[in-house]
UniProtKB/TrEMBL annotation:
Organism, scientific name: Micromonospora parastrephiae
GO terms (BP aspect): cell division
Binding site for ATP: 261-268
SUPFAM superfamilies membership: P-loop containing nucleoside triphosphate hydrolases
The entry's keywords: ATP-binding, Cell cycle, Cell division, Nucleotide-binding
PANTHER family xrefs: DNA TRANSLOCASE FTSK, SPORULATION PROTEIN RELATED
Occurrences of domain FtsK (ranges): 243-448
Protein name: Cell division protein FtsK
Amino acid sequence: MPALVPLLDAGHVHLSGDDRAGCDAVVSALLLRAAGRAEPGAVRLIGYDPEHLGGGLAGFAPLGTAGLLTFVGPGGLGALLDDLVEQIRRINETVLAGEHGSLRELASATGRRPEPWRVAVLLGGDELNRHERGQLERVVRAGAACGVHLVVRGIPLPDDPTVTRVVAGASGALIGGPAGLPVRLDPPPPATLVTETCREIAARVNAGPPPTPFADLLPPPEQMWRENSAGGLTAPIGEGPQGRPVRLTLGDYPPHALIGGPSGTGKTNLIFAWIGALAARYSPSELEFYLLDFKEGVSFARFAQGRRDPSWLPHMRLVGINVNTDREFGLALLRFLTEELRRRADAAKKHEVTKLAELRAVDPTGHWPRIVAVVDEFQMLLAGRDVVAREAADLLEDLARRGRSQGIHLVLASQDVRGIEALWGRPALVAQFTLRIALPKALRILAERNDAAQSLPRWHAVVNAESGMVEGNEVARIPSASDWETWSGLQHRLWRMRPADAAPARLFDGDAIPRLAEAPDYRALEAPADGKAPRNPVALLGEIIDVQSRSAALRLPRAPGRNLAVLGTRVDEACAVLDAAARSLARQHPPGTARFSIACLDADADPIARALYEDLADDAAWYDEETVGELMAETADGLGGAGGAHYLLLFAVDAAAGTLAARAGRRTGLEQLRRILHDGPERRTHVLAWWRGVARMRADLGGPAARTDQIGAWVALDAHGGELGASLYPGTGGPDWYPRPWRGLFFDRAVHRTGQVIIPYGPSR
């Protein structure tokens, strides 16, 4: 029959007798079986071996690499016993807390064990002093209930029901003391088995404990959307060391959060977990999310409606992905939030209150949810010293300072230390982010001398609501929330609960090219019901990089300068701007009320221009290099008469200069174009032309000193800001514009103070 010795959650073992090898075999077997059968990391050993200086536990040394084995040197027994007594006191007060009699009872009731087993192996030493004897007695008396155990040889233990005594002699061993049960001891476990087992345990522990179940963050289905956000937002983010939930709060204090951690430490997963915990507790009328991701990737696209999954998170109002080159979109979000802050502040002033909770109390019919705006890799928004970075920093500071009172909360995340350093020059801004969340190896998130994040295992985070000060540290084990199946289950449940009037979040993908036919502003266009031409037709040029899905619109009333110049050498993008403008104008004109003269002078532009001509059918006329001179002459000569709207769509118009000179004399041909530009708009004749360079346009308008008033609006593609100059743009030096693919800078003298970045619509066919 096997002879069993109760140890973990049961008691202590005292070894004695003249068979030293037998005692060593018992120690090795006990420790190997305890550590090997428990979950990796659940057993921690403390060795005290003053005679052999740790040699008695040498086979277990690999556990030290995972922090599962520590040695106490000679003279350190008192401190070791003091620490064990302190652990017992802490567990009794904060873990068991009067609710359970032991850790075993707690684990049985909850299914979790929040504390490891601690086994102190004491192998001889000098006689104990009075204090050490007292501490040893306390450990013997109260340790087993708290998972603190002793395996002792060469030190007397007091009599206690929890102590099992093993006496090893030459003829065998006795369990229970000199009069106990005789047993034949097993041979000591092979040294290689001990070492290999300990290495495997250490490797699994170093890989980190598994995450907690995502379901642990969620309330029962019948309790979802029951919370009220008037006073703030509170939800668990993970499990603390004692097995209790660690909660995050956004409200008056703390108002905003800063998240940091190197790549691969779980920043995206943490954001998913936090969003899920909040979305399950607060309905869309209580909470709205705006999410912006400056790194490349589409992880956050699943919050919005997609081709693979038609569901969306009902709380999500905006998802921006792949915006690493579109800093203007981040700026647009900050402007939007600032405008919402102003709207809420005006409402609070009207009702003579100061906080969101008070506003909701006096205006219960208003729509005042709390807003959480998450900006991942936010340092991209503050990079550089251009106008975007300066305005973004100013808006961030204003939102961080005043947003708390109106329920607008910022969550900024970064995996790069530079992201945090971008804030240090603005102490007033940093001070508002009192909630700090540091993932493993995160730098500069917590206070300067707070290095708690450096030793965190995977799936863990330091949560600190005291601006990173050490006393505010709380360690949380974060669940796995970002994989498709885990998140999809929650999102589908919440999607089915969505209000009847809920609409999908706006998804902005910086890598996607929008389509004109899908643009809300284009679908809203229609011809007047009376069959007459519109008084102020609008040409749509592209999608504005903005929070709302709006089109850049050029109004073409009968007013001087209402012409458009597209500037740059990118054929597809230039053609896309003219194509969208023509199609949107045609949509507003009943058949026969407008003429579209299409002149294509670049062979590469021919497919798009030809498709436009064919789709406009009877209202369009085609011109090429041979006939463009006739178009100019006929149009210029006809400006004095009455007629309907006439739109000249000139693809690569600068290529016509030679043709115009050959047909009617260079000066005459270009003079006709200039006259059309100058006099045409007041007679409902508008030029929408593409020049393949700013200098080429200036030459066609009369040279470097020529006036450009007749070009009331322009879209710059791969033309740099410095090329545009003061004649086309207010101020000196031109706009801060750095070209990039499928982006343009739109400026309309009549409405803009600064340029507007747009995305040309993709091909219509």
